Amino acid sequence: MIEVYSWATPNGHKVHIMLEECGLPYRVHAVDIGAGEQFAPEFLAISPNNKIPAIVDHDGPEGQPISLFESGAILLYLAAKTGRFIP
Q1: At 26, which helix (H) or strand (E)?
Q2: Which pLDDT does position 87 carry in this prediction?
Q3: Residue 83: its pLDDT value, please?
Q4: How many of the other CB atoms lie within 10 Å of CB of 67?
Q5: Average pLDDT over residues 14-21
Q6: Left, alpha or beta for 23 (phi > 0: left; psi -120 to 50: alpha)?
């Protein structure tokens, strides 16, 4: 299961679209950037640059959890993980 930490922004939507297109199971956690939730210590442990979106893939490389942030990095990771949308 992939945990997605996001808010309704263009970069946040990119990750949701990619997860749907790849058919990967995920759970969404809202991070209200208007209320400053991106500065919470729990979120900073996942995304040290305090930006959304961020993900935690509990079935990452070699079966180990991995956290990623920045939409471009997340999209490349998901493409490589599924073998889709990447040449």
Answers
A1: strand 26-30
A2: 83
A3: 95
A4: 15
A5: 97
A6: left
CA-to-CA dists, residue 54 to 10, 79, 87, angstroms: 13, 16, 24
As a CATH number, domain 2-82 is: 3.40.30.10
Cα atoms found within 13 Å of the Cα of residue 34, Cβ hemisphere only: 4
pTM above 0.85, yes or no: yes
Q: Please, are residues 38 and 52 in contact by the beta-carbon 8 Å criterion? A: yes
Token pair of 55 as six digits: 């993900």
pLDDT tens digits, residue range 28-87? 999 999 999 999 999 999 999 999 999 999 999 999 999 999 999 999 999 999 999 988
| Contact partners, residue 85, CB within 8 Å, separation at least 6 | 18, 21, 22, 75, 79
